[in-house]
Design goal:
By secondary structure, this protein is of the alpha/beta class. The chain contains ten helices and six strands. The chain has a six-stranded parallel sheet with strand order 2-1-3-4-5-6, with helices on both faces.
Length: 207
């Protein structure tokens, strides 16, 4: 028997999930919580095999609750069940240790099979969620400019000289040049104009 804990701030959603799971002979609901804080306290008591976790709730969101539960119950498997499928939400959940990410339109069979798979140690993702993760991995990594590099580049975009930039930022002209060389390397460009246009095209500079 696989024990499942339900975490969602809407009682009707929890009732619907419970009804779906009660139809499965090998699944049983061991507890329900309406917030992240309640989920942590309840999980420590009932020690479920699998948690179905809502993403956005009062009293700490699902990602925070996932991290805190796994810190005390590392063998518990947590599946996020939500209506949200933005890339940032998916990545936050996966990075927090979630074993799965399903959408609330999943059928009873899909939900039950996902719980069984998670309990076996497998990762379960809704098809659209899996597609988003694959597309993310296929995209080249976005270069990251430091705060100082962005400050220097923003002033370059405004037409300031290295000397002007150094004076405004209280750094030497040589340091300005060093920052620019790092920017050129990260953006894979060879001059100031290309650095500015590339940074703007990639959303690193906003004018």
């Amino acid at each position: 028997m696989i024990t499942v804990m339900l975490v969602d701030d809407h009682p009707m959603v929890r009732e619907g999930l419970r009804g779906m799971l009660e139809a499965e002979a090998d699944l049983t609901v061991s507890g329900e919580a309406g917030s992240g804080t309640e989920a942590l306290a309840l999980a420590a008591t009932v020690r479920p095999d699998v948690v179905l976790m809502d993403l956005r709730m009062p009293g700490g969101d699902g990602v925070e609750a996932t991290e805190r539960i796994l810190a005390i119950l590392p063998d518990t498997r947590i599946i996020v069940v939500t209506t949200y499928e933005t890339e940032s939400d998916i990545l936050r959940a996966v990075e927090a240790g979630a074993a799965g990410y399903l959408l609330k339109d999943a059928s009873r069979v899909e939900l039950a099979n996902a719980i069984r798979a998670a309990a076996r140690g497998e990762t379960v993702l809704a098809p659209t969620v899996a597609d988003r993760l694959v597309n993310r991995l296929r995209r080249p990594a976005q270069p990251t400019l430091s705060a100082r590099e962005l400050q220097v580049l923003a002033r370059v975009a405004m037409g300031e000289t290295n000397a002007d930039i150094g004076h405004e930022l209280h750094i030497s002209e040589a340091t300005v040049k060093t920052h620019l060389l790092r920017v050129f390397s990260k953006l894979e460009v060879s001059d100031r104009t290309a650095a500015v246009t590339t940074a703007m095209a990639r959303g690193l500079l906003d004018f």
